[in-house]
Amino acid sequence: MKTIFTAVQAFIADEDGVTAIEYGLIAALVGVAMAGAAKLLGAQIKTTFDGVVTAMKNA
């Protein structure tokens, strides 16, 4: 009985899995933010590059 209790205590004290989950959630949040920013700025970026291409053709 004592070994089961000790094993449960060790499992509760182990935070390695929690840290991995936190890093995974942070990475997912960063990915969502990047996708949202790309969607919002996509048309503006395309317009900017099209302007650069036009300026280079006319030069």
Could you characterize what this model shows?
With 59 residues, the protein is mainly α. Helices cover 93% and strands 0% of the residues. The termini are far apart. The mean pLDDT is 85.
Précis, in short:
With 59 residues, the chain is mostly helical.
Which descriptors apply to this entry?
2 helices, transmembrane helix, mainly alpha, membrane, 0% strand, 93% helix, 59 residues
Helix content: over 70%
Shape: rod-shaped
Q: How far is the first residue's CA from the last residue's CA?
A: 84 Å
Number of helices: 2
Main sheet attributes: strand count, strand direction, barrel closure: none
C-alpha-based Rg, rounded:
25 Å
Instruction: List low-confidence stretches.
Output: none
Series of H and E elements:
HH
Number of strands: 0
Structural class: mainly alpha
What percent of residues are in strands? under 5%
Average pLDDT value? Answer: 85
